[in-house]
Amino acid sequence: YLNDRLPFCKSGCYVWAVEPENIASIFRNGMGFLSIGNGLEKILPIFLYAHIGFTARLFKDAGLAVQFLLLIVGRTNSFKTSLSREIFMPFSPIDMMNFQSTPRAIELYREAVQDMVLFLDDIFASGDGNVMEKFENLLRTFGDGVSRAKSNKRSDGIERSDVCGGAVVTAEEGLNSQQSSSLRYLTIPVDASSFDGEKLRYFQHDSILAKQQGSASIMQYYFSAYIQFLEKHYNEIVSEIMDIDSTLEPLPVSFPRLNTIYKAMAILARLVIRFGLVCNALTEAEATVMRQQWLPVIQKMILANQSESTILEPYLAFLVALSQGIACREIS
């Protein structure tokens, strides 16, 4: 993993060293983030997706490229932005952006957070008439795994930057996307009752204190230990991803792309649980219980997204488009 802790690498991304004797407690502390959710239904997909940037290279090596982004939809005071800042940006050298940013700035941001998660906040807050075009460009980049082509410095060839990592977008309204677009993102609808604000504040205060003291926060330590786990067991994990990809029973959904997303999320769940087993933070019995609890949550989320991807009746499509137009301030 590109890491400023290594003397030969200047990536702008500093991953903390983790002592082996501390890994079990670091894992348990990191898993405490799940307690922010009032139930697993909303917090678990968000927590799992936070691992996707660090794991994306292994998915690619296993022949199962990650080609979807996460859309968190909720009104103001649903904690979607503050939660996202805590979980998706443990090492990011650049702060989050919003859709007021230019397409070129978003492209540079994506390149800067390679093997991490890009976070763009509040798609409708900018009032920019081109906001959906920016979103579609982002969606095609991550959904197809292909960045924008451009000429090289000598203008005698074509170059593209690698697309490897994840992307998270927040919005106050659902998106009226074409079916092909809606199958490239996973929607998590949230509201004020989805998360516990007091428990979230505990992690926020920990991050502030860690920054003041020049130390690592709970989640920085957790993801540092996770990256160390990936590095140490790289080839085994790639083989495991390939095995799960070929043996996991698909869901009865109408769109193959949704089953690909289901596989990716199920694999992430298994890897996190295996991480807990390897660092002796979980017993086999605890791991079995977690698998039994987590997989139905992922399945339910995928089935809910299938209904979102189904083409709407014309009058419903009109109402959704009207709502979006008002949110974008294109309609008053």
pLDDT < 50 runs, ≥5 residues: none
Mean of the pLDDT scores? 84
The number of helical elements comes to 13
Give the spatial strand order of the biggest sheet: 2-3-6-1-7
Beta-strand content estimate: 5-15%
Output the structural class.
Answer: alpha/beta
Helicity level: 40-55%
Give a short account of the largest sheet: 5 strands, parallel
What would the principal axes of the Cα set say about the shape?
globular
Compressed to H and E, one letter per element, the order equals HHHEHEHEHEEEHEHHHHHH
Global Rg: 20 Å
Explained architecture:
It is a single chain. This protein has a 5-stranded parallel β-sheet, with helices on both faces. The mean pLDDT is 84. The protein is globular, with a radius of gyration of 20 Å. Strand 4 and strand 5 form a beta hairpin. It starts with 22 loop residues before the first helix and ends in a 5-residue tail after the last helix. The chain is of the alpha/beta class and 332 residues long. It has helices at 23-31, 40-49, 52-61, 80-88, 103-112, 131-144, 179-182, 197-213, 218-232, 234-247, 256-278, 284-309, 314-327, and strands at residues 69-73, 97-98, 117-121, 150-151, 158-159, 166-171, 185-189. The protein has 13 helices and 7 strands.
